[in-house]
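A quick word before the example. In earlier lectures we treated sequence and structure as two separate objects. From today on, think of them as two lines of the same record. Here is RNA-binding protein YqeI written that way.
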Amino acid sequence: MLTGKQKRYLRSEAHHLKPIFQVGKTGVNENMVGQINDALEKRELIKVSILQNCLEDKDDVAAQLAAGTNAEIVQIIGNNIVLYKESRENKNIELP
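And the structure line, produced from the sequence above:
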C-alpha cells in the first residue's frame, strides 16, 4: 500500500503524463489488462483515459485494472486513472 506522501509524489510525477490507454464502451478486457501490465513494467506510472461512451463506472474500471495488474490506484481525476506498479527490471521511480 502507498502512503499519502508517496501518492502525492506520484501524482506530481504523473501530472505531465498523457494517457496511453483508453477504456471505451467495451470496458476492461483481458487483452487490455495484459497490455497495461506490460506498460507498467516499462514505465511504472501510467495514465488511462476513460472515454465518454464507457458504460462502466470509472471507480469500477480503476478497481478492475488495479486488480488485474496488481497495481496501485494513485488517483482518479476527471476521466483519467493514474496507476503505479513497481517495476522488476526497469526501476526508475524512487518513492519517498
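Notice the following. The radius of gyration is 13 Å. We will return to this example when we discuss secondary structure assignment.
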